[in-house]
Amino acid sequence: MQMPEPNASVLARKDRVVARLREALSAAAVISDPAETRAYECDALTAYKCAPMAAVLPASTQEVSAALRICHEEGVPVVPRGAGTSLAGGSLPTADSVVLGVSRMTEVLETNYPDRYIRVQTGMTNLSVTGAVEEADFFYAPDPSSQLACAISGNIAMNSGGAHCLKYGVTTNNLLGVTLVQMDGTVVEIGGAHLDAGGLDLLGVICGSEGQLGVVTEATLRILRKPEGARPVLIGFDANETAGACVSDIIRAGILPVAIEFMDRPCIEACEAFAKAGYPMCEALLIVEVEGSEGEIADQLTRIVAIAEQHKPVALREAGDADEAARIWLGRKSAFGAMGQINDYMCLDGTIPVSALPEVLRRMGDLSAEYGLGVANVFHAGDGNMHPLILYNANTPGQLELCEALGAEILKLCVEVGGCLTGEHGVGVEKRDLMLHQYAPEDLDAQMAVKDVFDPAWLLNPAKVFPLAQSEARRVAAE
Amino acid sequence: MKPGNEAELAELVAGAAGPLRIMGGGTRDVGRPVDGTALSTAGLTGATLYEPGALTLVVRAGTPLAEVETVLAGEGQRLAFEPMDHRALLGTTGAPTIGGAVAANVSGPRRVQAGACRDFLLGVRFVDGQGRVIKNGGRVMKNVTGYDVVKLMAGSWGTLGVLTELSFKVLAIPETEMTLVARGLSDADGVALLSTALGSPFDVTGAAHLGQGVVEGGARTQVRIEGLAASVAYRRDRLTALLPGVEAVEGADSAALWREVRDVDPFAGQPGSVWKVSVRPSDGPVLCARLGTLVTGAIYDWGGGLVWLRGPEAGDGGASRIRAEVATLGGHATLVRGPEALRRQVPVFPPETAGVATLTAGLQAKYDPRGVLNPGLMG
Q: Is the ipTM of this complex over 0.95?
């Protein structure tokens, strides 16, 4: 992974930059000892590591603004960081950067049930937002699987999704307003507790911009009343194609489940060995979950089962109660842990049109054989967001590179069939160099023009999203 | 000018010597009037891909909205964001296009539950101010590959680019719809009822209140539920117990109630300026109470968060007072209907704070450096 050469003159000014940051924040909020900055050397994409020059942990929007203004004046790149759970290297530092973490900003600022929103500081974890409104039976809908740990700031930066976004949408569909601090310290309020922009939809482009347009310190989020109940059904098939066709038929029938999860045989076997959820051994499993009252759930499940039966399932298990529901989810929820037990793995995140599912699974199998690395699939089938897990051994020299090459081939396949490189994890550094497979240079130019406007100095979250060669002219011009 | 394909359109924009007035069907005459050569996308028509099993439709921007809806209905599907038809309200004629609906980001009553037009837009192709063809997003439901320029294009009224092709997530038409109607409530009580309904677990897909004097028979408060027949019946019973005094209206009669709200029908053919105000739902009635006799009617959609106001036509059309009150509450106000002279006199779109205005101007300068795309339309 190529990263830009650290700026020697920035490194030479480290002491002055750190002193200025300490003066503006507090000594405790600025970390510059190399033994301590190592804690920020990577996120959940641990294959790449680089300790930053310093890290700052501001406690308020004003402190974020002060820190950014100083870095801007000193020409120091800034890497915004939420909880550091990015799987794409979204908060990988450069050696000449200051990591700006929002982990100390975890306050609920306002909760309003009649108007159905909550305003929070963005260091709050995803799950704690739901935790803050549970007393009134409300919840915050986007539910990435890292929701116990991941921060709202990172959710906004990556436009995170989750298992239930088939019904509730992803972060951008549930975000009403933000306080954004630009690289030069300017604080702007975008949106609010009301719906939709009056002018250009700046909120829409800020969400998912991977921390490259500004640091979001506060957010107004839509909250929803919890459904009365939810229940899954487990359906097994003897071929991936059949499972794919069943997904399509369920969707066409006009039933909108909250989640349709798909697991293939390698994944089923690993999960079963790990979690012993009692899954049937077959080629493909679907977990379809519906919501509502008891009667509504029964009605929807009856229809789903009728559709599934036309595809001759080899197994079909309806959850009769909460216990059985938990057992059905147990294997799926432990999938990543189960994989981790048997191997190192790399988790991909491409999205494909649902109709291309059988073809993609077949060709992925061919690629897996060609590269000699196992691939297990567990993913959100309703919206085509795949999570192929490539199994490799990190201790075997050359396997990481082989794994990355196979990953790139699989993502290119996703694009080829009409999909995209990443459905919910973000580009980060991981998929940066694949961007030209999805977009033409002028398409990337139109995206980079947005960064030119928000961060003309090109200092925020360097070397992410855009291939370095594509952004070079702009970065040089900005210096 | 009415190019027949994207390449021709790109050439026309690249070669434009002066301002262009970008239009679809010409039915949404909103914004500061643009003095320029008309450039219509109505020649770019037809669906390029429709996969009902993937809930995906890709369609050229000039395709009439009615045609899109017919194609979808053939498969039992629809555009869930319920785009408004501006013709009656604005007194325009012609065929609204899908591109126009996106350029205006028009979202109907289902906005509160399903989302806005921009939430269903998966991808765009457009021609920027220099005549370059740009694509962003795609045709899949989950996509975070690069910046979301798709959102930026929705609601940009042709000022950042001329839309040529759009991909949408579509949804199934539910088996049943039903509306629960209450009569004679004050604005505050009406919106409180809507908040109760939207705060219930019963998946309300429309929540509107038409204030006193707007429709015959006194104020009308309405809540919509949609879905499988048994489910709608169940939720009707639960909501009826929760919301005092409501009565159920079914089928076509229910649909008519929502078309009326979606298109702001009660203000069609009535004199006065028409404002679209976005505030916190519970602030809607507060705003109207403060404005007093300045407004002669209010229709609350989106649970109270979208307020259609009929104001004066004279003077500044109510701009300064409406905007001053909205500013104290938080939100924004757009002058959707007003005579040309008024639309040249007062900002049609909400004035922006200095920070936001800098960003907006910066984006417009990047996407349309020569200032040829609907210049000045958004103020």
A: yes
Q: Determine whether the interchain pair B359/A188 forms a contact, defined as Cβ–Cβ distance below 8 Å.
A: yes
CB A105 within 8 A of CB A122: yes
Tell me the pLDDT tens digit for each residue of A273-320: 888 888 999 999 999 999 999 999 999 999 999 999 999 999 999 888
A369 and A316 belong to one structural domain: no
Nearest to A228 by CA among A173, A143, A160, A294: A294
What's the gap between Cα A342 and its chain centre? 24
Find, among A377, A332, A378, A386, the residue nearest to A354 by Cα.
A386
Q: Which domain holds residue B132?
A: 6-172
Q: Please state, in angstroms and rounded to a whole number, the distance separating the CA atoms of residues B290 and A355.
A: 54
- Amino acid A70: pLDDT: 98
Among B172, B203, B220, identify where a domain stops. Answer: B172
- Domain count for chain B: 3
Q: Give strand pairing partners of B337.
A: B274
CB environment B183-206: b (16+ within 10 A), e (fewer): eebebbebbbbbbbbbbbbbbbbb
Please, which residues 128-147 of chain B have a Cβ atom closer than 8 Å to chain A?
A: 128, 132-136, 138-147
Mean model confidence pLDDT for chain A: 94
Amino acid letter for position A339: M
Query: Can you give the length of chain A in residues?
Result: 479
Query: Is the CB of B135 less than 8 angstroms away from the CB of A424?
Result: no
pLDDT value of residue A229: 94
Question: Which residues in chain B have Cβ-Cβ distances shorter than 8 Å to A385?
Answer: 140-142
B160 and B69 in a single domain? The answer is yes
Q: Which helix (H) or strand (E) holds A63?
A: helix A61-74
CA–chain centroid gap for A248, Å, is 25
Q: Residue B160: its chain A contacts at CB < 8 A? A: 200
Facing residue for B148 by CB, picked from A190, A208, A427:
A208
Q: Could you give the dihedral angle defined by the CA atoms of residues A434, A439, A445 and A451, in that order, rounded to the nearest 10 degrees?
A: -60
Nearest CA in chain B to A200: B156
Mutation site for B-interface testing, chosen from A115, A297, A311, A429 by largest number of B Cβ within 10 Å: A115
Q: Do A440 and A410 reside in the same domain of the chain? A: no
Are residue B188 and residue B257 in the same domain, yes or no? yes
Facing residue for B280 by CB, picked from A189, A194, A353 = A194
User: Are B57 and B154 in the same domain?
Assistant: yes
A63 and A25 both lie in a single domain? yes
How far from the centroid of its chain's Cα atoms is residue A149's Cα?
12
Tell if the CB–CB gap between B142 and A296 is shorter than 8 Å: no
CATH number at residue A235: 3.30.70.3450
B293 to chain A nearest CA, in Å? 24
Exposed, middle or buried, A372 (CB in 10 Å: 0-12/13-18/19+)?
A: exposed
Nearest-by-Cβ selection for B146 from A161, A188, A439: A439
First to last CA, chain B: 24
Do B53 and B141 lie in one domain? The reply is yes
Q: Looking at A318, A336, A354, which one is the last position of a domain?
A: A336
Question: Which token pair is B230?
Answer: 């048994």
Give whole-number Cα distances, A144 to A33, A125, A170, in Å: 33, 11, 9
Residue B361 lies in a domain: no
Residue A214 lies in a domain: yes
* CA-based nearest distance B38→chain A, Å: 22
Q: Which two tokens stand for residue A110?
A: 């306002």
Question: Are residues B75 and B13 part of one domain?
Answer: yes
Q: pLDDT tens digits for A416-444?
A: 999 999 999 999 999 999 999 999 999 99
Provide the domain limits for residue A473.
432-478
Which chain B residues in 20-49 lie under 8 Å from chain A, judged by CB atoms? none
Helix, coil or strand: residue A240: helix
Nearest CA in chain B to A466: B146
Q: Do A201 and B151 touch (CB under 8 A)?
A: yes
